[in-house]
Amino acid sequence: RTRNLVDAYYFELHLEIDGTISLLKAHELTEAVEQKILELYPESQILIHQDPYGIHEDRLDHKIEGACKLD
Hints:
Blueprint: E1 2-4, E2 9-17, H1 23-40, E3 45-52, H2 60-68
Parallel strand pairs: 2-3
Antiparallel strand pairs: 1-2
């Protein structure tokens, strides 16, 4: 999810990560994603939720993904 503020962007995203890796590695991956966003949008505010890969929560992106699939 991205919101445009007056002179910046606010990013909120779920980052699905292999649940078997260490907490330190998950943190490093998340930091790398955050830094890449900041390179592209320096005035951004970023909130990243870390989820184990494959978790199925009641999230809007999952609902949209399911609604957009063609059988």
